[in-house]
Amino acid sequence: MVDDEDIAQFLPSDSPLVRQSEAVRLQAAKGRVRAEKIDSIIKANIIQAVTMGLIPVPLLDVLALTHIQFKMLDELVKLYDIRYTKIERSVVRAFILGSLPVATVTGLSSVLKVMPGVGSFIGGASVSVSAGALTYATGKVFARHFELGGTLDDFNLEKANRQFRQEFRHGKQVAQELVTTQALTFTAEFKEDA
C-alpha cells in the first residue's frame, strides 16, 4: 500500500498536493491534541466531582458540583475560543440546572448523608458516582457541540438534553471506574504508609 509520504517524495516540495497533504496532516494532529485536552479537562473535573461527593455536609456537595461544572464549561469555552456573554451563561445555567431529574437524585442522595453511619457512606458513594456521571455527560455534550462548530448562541437545549441522557448512562460507568481506581490507589498508598 502506498501512503502520502511515499507519493510526496516524488513530487516537488512546493506542489499544491504536498502542501494540501501537509495541511490535512497538521489539522489531524491539532484535532488529536484538542481531543486529548478535552478528555483531560473532563476527566479532571470528574475526579473533582467524585471527590466532592465525599463532602459530609448535605447539599453543600450539590453546590460544589454546580461550581465544578461551571468551571469545566469555562475551560471548554476557552479551549474552543468561544465568547461567553451573560446571556449565553444563562443558557449554560439552564442546561446544568435543567437536568433536574438527575440533579434531584443527586440531591436526595446528598440528604442521605444526614443519617449517621451507613446513610453517610451510602449517600457519599451515591453522590460521588452521580456527580461524576453528571460532570461527564455535561462535558461531553458541550464538547461535542463545540467540536461541530457550535457556539453558545446556537446551543439547542432540547437536543442537548437527549444527548445528556445517553452520556449520563455512560458517565455512570466512567465515574464508577474512577471511584474504584481511586479507592484502590488510596488503599495501596495506605498500606505502604502503614
UniProtKB/TrEMBL annotation:
<protein>
    <submittedName>
        <fullName>DUF697 domain-containing protein</fullName>
    </submittedName>
</protein>
<keyword id="KW-0812">Transmembrane</keyword>
<dbReference type="InterPro" id="IPR021147">
    <property type="entry name" value="DUF697"/>
</dbReference>
<keyword id="KW-1133">Transmembrane helix</keyword>
<dbReference type="Pfam" id="PF05128">
    <property type="entry name" value="DUF697"/>
</dbReference>
<feature type="transmembrane region" description="Helical">
    <location>
        <begin position="118"/>
        <end position="137"/>
    </location>
</feature>
<keyword id="KW-0472">Membrane</keyword>
<feature type="transmembrane region" description="Helical">
    <location>
        <begin position="91"/>
        <end position="112"/>
    </location>
</feature>
